[in-house]
Protein: Fur family transcriptional regulator
Organism: Clostridium oceanicum
Amino acid sequence: MNTISTIFREKNLKLTPQRIAVYKYLQSTKEHPSAETIYKAIQPNYPTMSLATVYKALKTLVEVNLVQELNVGEGNFRYDGNVSCHPHIQCVSCGRVDDINGISFTNLNDKVKDYTDYDVLANKLYFYGICKDCKDKNDD
Ligand SMILES: [Zn+2]
Ligand SMILES: [Zn+2]
């Protein structure tokens, strides 16, 4: 909680209960939910909150770098409370998004420098596949 209140104070942003709820929910899950999923999860505790409010809260949290926005294709945005640079994999069958742990691609930035005159700052890697649950279902 410390980080979010400090960052919001520094940026002169209002720390509304809705923004805190969205942030806390993202800290509590590794499932990379969409805005709709976040809305459904926290709406029971905030009955007056609209989906638009969730979108606005997410936009603000992304702007102050407390939340990472993942564009997994076709305008399908997912959200991650872990803002460190890490690769993701999405199931093409059910749409779930998982972290890929234990492998780093930061050295890719250096490699790519040989092929461009840009200063390479970052990369975002998305892999696509079939998750274990979907594989198991197909095996039946
Ligand atoms: Zn799947
Ligand atoms: Zn992630």
About this structure: The domain at 84-140 is CATH 3.30.1490.190 (Dna Ligase; domain 1). Helices lie at 2-10, 17-28, 35-42, 51-63, 106-113, 132-139. The chain has a mean pLDDT of 92. The chain has two domains: 1-82, 84-140.
